[in-house]
Amino acid sequence: MKPRAGVALTSVMMALTLTTGMIEAVSFLVLGPVFTAVQTGNLLFLAFALVGATDLSPAASGVSIAGFAVGTVLGSRLESEVDRRGNRWFVVALLAEGVLLGVGALLAWRTGIHPPTGSGEPPTGRHFAVIALVAAAMGLRNVTALRASVPDVPTTLSTRALTALLSGLPPTADTRIGSGARHEGRRLASVGAMFTGGMLGAWLLDAAVAPAVVLLLTAALALCLGTVHWATPVERTSVRG
């Protein structure tokens, strides 16, 4: 069952975009520097590190890429199988993502991961474990975003939304990429959600909130969104396909 397009679905994807900013704040400022959602950054970090760039961990980037790949493959299989059986794959995807983020938060809590007290502290095995779990959740999320196909809201990357936003501004709007208040509003909200999430995550960490708590907040939101969709009648939230 495919989630029905509309304000409700767009709002869910915007909320997930906000949590991406929070997650990447933890990833970059505490676990790395590394990204768990924006894999373009990891590919570049890995390339830089392999030719001798300092303060970068090729292991952290590699673990994140591997975790993301596993999450993408397993997430694709899971969502496709649930969909094949005629069930609500979007709900399952949100709940599965929330569980992965929750396990990552629990591991960060149990292993005592905190923001580094100095520069140049390399990530350790406990960091790698959390990176892998969170990256797997983000791989699954990317599959969900592709299947949901909400225009201008990929949830883990704002480059295209920002490009479309700027290209659609009058008086030189590019009509081939869509223009108008509805398109521009959605793009602006997408970029704003990512920025706000990053700022919120960094602020929480700066206020001495444990990284595990920040991750737990993102997990709780994914679980809440999944639960709400599960409890909402099918005819109002989903369509065949």
Question: Which key terms come to mind for this protein?
Answer:
Growth Hormone, Chain: A, 9 helices, mainly alpha, 241 residues, two-stranded antiparallel ribbon, 2 strands
Number of helices: 9
Total domains, how many? 1
Oligomeric status: single chain
Mean pLDDT equals 88
Gyration radius from CA atoms, angstroms:
18 Å
* Beta-strand segment tally: 2
Low-confidence stretches: none
CA(first)-CA(last) distance: 6 Å
Into which percent range does the helicity of residues fall? over 70%
Characterise this structure.
The mean pLDDT is 88. The protein is 71% helix and 2% strand. The chain is globular, with a radius of gyration of 18 Å. Helix 3 packs antiparallel against helix 4. It is mainly alpha-helical. The protein contains 9 helices and 2 strands, in the order E-H-H-H-H-H-H-H-H-H-E. It has a single domain, classed as Growth Hormone, Chain: A (Up-down Bundle), CATH 1.20.1250. A two-stranded antiparallel sheet has the order 1-2.
